[in-house]
Amino acid sequence: MNYRDYILKLFLRVFILVGLILGLIYFIYEEKTVYLTLISFAIIYSIIELYQFIKRRFSAMDDFFEAVKYRDFSRWFPEDRGPKDIRFLYTGFNEVNRTIKEINRQNEAQFVYLQKILEMVDIGIVAYNLENGDVLWMNNSFKDIIDFPSFKNIRFVEKRKPDLYNSIFETYNKEPNSISIALENEKIKVLISDTIFQVNDDSFKLVVLQNIDNTLNRNESEAWKKLLSVMTHEIMNSIAPISSLADTLQRNIQFSIDDEENHPLELEDLNAGIKTIKTRSQGLLKFAKTYRSLSKVTHLNLQKVKVAELFQSIELLMAPSIKAKNIEIEFSVSSKRLELDIDVHLIEQVLINLILNARDACQNSENPLIRIKASQSQNQQIVIKIYDNGIGISKEIMENIFVPFFTSKATGSGIGLSLCKQIMLLHKGRILVNSKENEGTVFSLIF
C-alpha cells in the first residue's frame, strides 16, 4: 500500500513538472516575459523538490543496507517523525532488524545448547583448521582421553608427543577404526573416526575419539551379570514345574505304598510323568548348552511335530503347578492335523515362559483362567494364543516389554519375553501382544 502511495506521489510530481515545462514553452512562444520568470522559478523548485523526494527514500534505503553490510542490526530507525512514506519504510526496516536479532538469539541459544551437550558426553571431539592447525572447538572429554592440557593449536601436541599427533591428527579414518595410543603410564584402546568439512574458504577436520577400554570392561561385566540372570531365570522356569510334577508322582507312589487298595498305582500315569520329566530335562540341558556356546543360538534343530502332541506335553508338565494355585488352565487345538516345523525344546521354553507370566498376571483375579489355543488362519499361518484374565499390561510399559532386561516385576530379570521374541524370530515367526488393563492379555505366536 505504501509502495502505491509513493508511486502516486512521484507520478503527481512528474506530472506537475511536465505541465510547468509545457507552460514554459507556451509563454516563450507568446513572449510573455513576466510569466516566463515565474514559471522558471516554479520549474526549478519542482525539480529540486522531486530530487529531494527521490533522494530521501534512497538515502533511507542506503542507510539500512549499510547497517546490513556491517551486521549492525541494533540500529533503530525513527518511526514517529518525517514523511509518512519514510516512516512506513523505517517501520519495515525495524521489523527486519527485530526478526534478524531474534534469529541470532535463537542460533546463539542453540549453539550454547549444543556446546553443553557435547561437553557432557564422554566422547572426545575436536575440530581444527587443516591449513594452520588452529583449534576451532574441543570438549573436555578429548583432553581427558589423550591426557593433555588445553591447547589452541594442534602443533602443540606435535612438539610434545609426535606419535600421538601422528595417530590422531595425521592419519585419516573415514570409517571408525580401533587404535592404541600411548599415554604417560599406559596404553589405551580408542575408537577413532574423522571427517573433513568446509566453512567458507577454510577446510576443517573433525576428529572423534572414544575410550573403548572402559566401555569393553564395563560391558563385559554387565554381560556376565545379565547372562547369569538369564540362565538362572530360564533354569528356574523349567525346574519349578519339573519339581512340582516329581512331587506329585512321589506323593502318588507313597499313597500307593501306604494304602495300595484305595490308592492303586497307575503305571501309565507314572510312565507319562517320568517321560515328561525326562523330555523337559533334555530340553533344559540343550538350553544350557545353547547359552554356553552363544554362537549356536542361530542353529535350530527343526522337526515336524503335531501341535496337539506339543500341547499334551506342556499340559502334563505345567498343569499340576498351575492348578495348585487354584488357576484353571485349558488347552485346545482347532484340528489334530495341525503341524509345526520347529525346534520343540525352544518352543516349549517360549510356552512355559508365557504360561508362567499368565499365571502371575491372573493369580489374584476372580475365577482365574489361562487358555492356550491353536488354530490356522486364512492365510495358512498357524497361530498359538495364550489368554489370561489377569491384570493386563499398562500402556506405559507395553512398548518396552520385549526390550531385553526390562521388567515390571520386583524379582524379574527382564529376559523372558525378549528371549521368547528371539526364539520366534529364529523360527521366522512373530510374537504379538494385545492387552487391556484389568481385563486380561493375549500373546499370539504366529508361525
TrEMBL record:
GO molecular function: kinase activity
Enzyme class: transferase
Protein's UniProt keywords contain Signal: no
EC number(s) reported in the record: 2.7.13.3
Keyword field: ATP-binding, Kinase, Membrane, Nucleotide-binding, Transferase, Transmembrane, Transmembrane helix, Two-component regulatory system
Residue ranges crossing the lipid bilayer per the database entry: 7-29, 35-54
Protein name: histidine kinase
InterPro entries: BphY/WalK/GraS-like (IPR050351), EF1B_G_C_sf (IPR036433), HATPase_C_sf (IPR036890), HATPase_dom (IPR003594), His_kinase_dom (IPR005467), Sig_transdc_His_kin-like_C (IPR004358)
Reactions that this protein is recorded to catalyse: ATP + protein L-histidine = ADP + protein N-phospho-L-histidine
Domain Histidine kinase residues, every copy: 230-447
